[in-house]
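Please check this:
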Amino acid sequence: MVMKTIERKPDFDNLLAVLRRSVPARPTLFEFFLNERLYKKLAGAAYNDSPDLLSNYRMLIAAFAKAGYDYATVMGSLFKFETGVHDQEKTISLNQNPLITDRESFNAYHWRDPDEFDYSALEQITPDLPPKMRLIVYSPDGVLENVIRITGYENLCMLLCDDPRLVEDIFANVGQRLVRYYVKCVSYRTVGACISNDDWGFKTQTMLSLNDMRKYFFPWHKKIVEIIHTAGLPAILHSCGQSDGIMGDVIKDMGV
């Protein structure tokens, strides 16, 4: 018996149907990201590990389309926060090389401006994007992730007790920059949705108390969702960890 291979062409309307709680025209795949081994295998000649965004987009589009997805997930620019050097092993420390530990180091920290980065690859990739395929933009880590990478997890927990005003200032500086990042990204026609990605918990509990989450960084995620929805795009939440206690916040307050 000869097996016939049917090419599956990307059609973002299928994912939109799923997000709108409707029935898509066919089974629809979703994954935040794949991995370098799969990208290399799927993209073939289009594979590259160049830091150039346009080349990276072409590779991701080729890989995601080949695997049967209706989209490719991408970064909107090279914007990211300055962090200390972290070892990349099988396990990592959330406390290694913090850059902000007190008010003095906060004042000395270099806050990068997302408006100074180039987002034009989101437009330039148009000729390479299959007609019904769209990009889904995610951020260079989320609000809490970036704060932890900048302060260290244990230090952040100590600061919540010792200097809550400083914690508020750190979250505000991270949050407002991620809001600006999404404002830039949603203006491009190639973008079909955005992911508000962050890691909020461990296997058994959230990273911080529910009250601290609601005070310091949930409001920034709510602003990010508002930016995405105002542009007429779906907002997709990615968050690792135990989330039972916060699903009401996600659905009712953030409106993801």
Summary: The chain has eleven helices and four strands.
